[in-house]
Amino acid sequence: MAGPPAVIWGREVEGLLRYRELVPRLEEALGKFSSRDPAEVIQPGRTTVPLQKHHGFMGLMPTYMENKGVLCTKFVCFYKREDGSNLPSTQATVVLLDPEYGNVKAVMDGELITRMRTAAVSAISAKLLMCPEAEVLAILGTGAQAMSHYNVFTEMFSFKEVRVWSCKGQGSERFCRSVSGPVTVCVSAEEAVRGADVIVTVTRCTEPVLFGQWVKPGAHVAAVGACRPNWRELDDVLMKEAVVYADSREGALTESGDVILSGAERRQPCSNPSEWEWKMQCPAQLVFDQWEAKSCKS
Ligand SMILES: NC(=O)c1ccc[n+]([C@@H]2O[C@H](COP(=O)([O-])OP(=O)(O)OC[C@H]3O[C@@H](n4cnc5c(N)ncnc54)[C@H](O)[C@@H]3O)[C@@H](O)[C@H]2O)c1
Ligand SMILES: O=C(O)[C@@H]1CCCCN1
Question: Residue span of the signal peptide, if any (predicted)?
Answer without folding.
Answer: none
